């Protein structure tokens, strides 16, 4: 995987300190270290991009999309970014910010299920 430029790494550190409410809500669930569950990183730099959340073993990026992603040329930028990440072998899952704010636990469980499938882990027993 391509190493991120130093400026991108610094920007990622800054973003970790200023998470949006939907990012903070999802991170509250994803940050929990549970045996047999893939781990996630937040505001993780990959190449020229900073991913909202990244699961390295699953090569899975989670992007929380607010209204800004629907305006101006942002849909085209998002498509280019997704295409670049796909070439790197990283799957990108986009979740609307409103869904995370409505039910962060459900959003997190959906993300974890995708990550488990990508790393070949079975779902935990009920």
From TrEMBL:
Gene3D superfamilies attached to this UniProt entry: VSR Endonuclease
InterPro entries, alphabetized: DUF559, Endonuclease_DUF559_bact, Restrct_endonuc-II-like
Domain (DUF559): residue spans on this chain: 9-113
Domain of life: Bacteria
Pfam families: DUF559
SUPFAM superfamilies linked to this entry: Restriction endonuclease-like (SSF52980)
Protein name from the UniProt record: DUF559 domain-containing protein
